[in-house]
Amino acid sequence: MSTVQGMNNAVRIPTADLPDSPQARQLQAGFPWLTFNPELESEFRRRHYDENLLHTRVNLCLAVIITIAFSAMESIALGSELNRIPGLIHVLVIIPLLLIGLASSFSPQRQRIYPPIAIIVSTIVGLGVVATQIIATLGGMSMLFPGLMLTVIFIYFMGSLIFYHAVAANGVIMFVYLVAGTALQLPSREFGYDALALIAANLFGASVHYMHEKTSRLRFLEACLLHELVARDGLVLEAEYHKLRTGRFEKRRGQCAV
Question: What is the mean pLDDT of residues 25-43?
Answer without folding.
Answer: 87
